[in-house]
Amino acid sequence: QVQLVESGGGSVQAGGSLRLSCAASGRAFSSYTMAWFRQAPGKQRESVAAVTWTGGRTYVTDSVKGRFTISRDNAKNTVYLQMNSLKPEDTAVYYCAASNYASVSSRSDEYAYWGQGTQVTVSS
């Protein structure tokens, strides 16, 4: 099965930056959509961003637009989430996910594969 491993999380002060990485392995795929979701304590999982492997089309949720950028490196089977101007409300566990569809989506139920998550903590 597909395995997704996130890395790059940590603690940062407000206004700082982090870059999350998601390494995919276990199966060949070219039509998947890769995405980042996050879940803060006491809150439900929410979509952050998504990108298609082949076309590179992207989606970024309004709350992080202009601050976060999603990208992918097909040769490395890795997806990145560059997070700038971080705010305390960005604190959450960030999850990488993979979809069987070649179109970006913010719906978590369209993603079949999930990573374990990486903690991002933004202090004021």
Q: Top keywords for this entry?
A:
mainly beta; 124 residues; seven-stranded mixed sheet
Instruction: Specify the number of helices.
Output: 0
Largest sheet: 7 strands, mixed
For the termini, the CA-CA separation is 40 Å
Mean pLDDT: 92
Share in β-strands? over 45%
Low-confidence stretches: none
Notes on the structure:
By secondary structure, this protein is mainly β. Helix content is 0%, strand content 52%. Strands 2, 4, 5, 6, 9, 10 and 11 form a seven-stranded mixed sheet that branches. A four-stranded antiparallel sheet has the order 1-3-8-7, with no helix packed on it. The mean pLDDT is 92.
Secondary structure layout plus pairing:
Blueprint: E1 3-7, E2 10-13, E3 18-25, E4 33-39, E5 46-52, E6 58-60, E7 68-73, E8 78-83, E9 92-99, E10 111-114, E11 118-123
Parallel strand pairs: 2-11
Antiparallel strand pairs: 1-3, 3-8, 4-5, 4-9, 5-6, 7-8, 9-10, 9-11
Task: Summarize it.
Helix content is 0%, strand content 52%. The protein is built from no helices and eleven strands. Strands 2, 4, 5, 6, 9, 10 and 11 form a seven-stranded mixed beta sheet that branches.
